[in-house]
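Handout, section B. The chain below has 131 residues.
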Amino acid sequence: MGMFDVEFHENLNLKEGNSNLFEFIKKQFLKNKNYEIKIEKDSLNIEKLQLGSLLRYKLNITTSTNKKEKTSQAIITAELQDTLILTIFIILAIAFTYGLGIIPIIMFTYFQKVKATKYLKELLENYKSTI
């Protein structure tokens, strides 16, 4: 995982399996745009998704269940996709501002990571309240 990628774990109560969670997330994201979505047995992948931020992420949600304790855990990872644009901005910042321009770019990117993390956590809280 990179410095600006999102990753966290969330304990969920998946009584009806993970398909209910995946359908909820799919409906939430397909309201605004049409994304390429891949649903496999235990994972959901969405390419080039804007998670309430200006930067795009590749979202991967993987679920695992513990049958003994009857609990489920969702592992949410979002990998930053707009690295080429950020690299160009950093090179231009070094060339024109003697390196001081890197600070606002890194602050902006970190703020977008925080914003994406908050958006995903709110989405999972909304899912928990609908169960």
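Note. The chain has a mean pLDDT of 86. Compare this with the example in section A.
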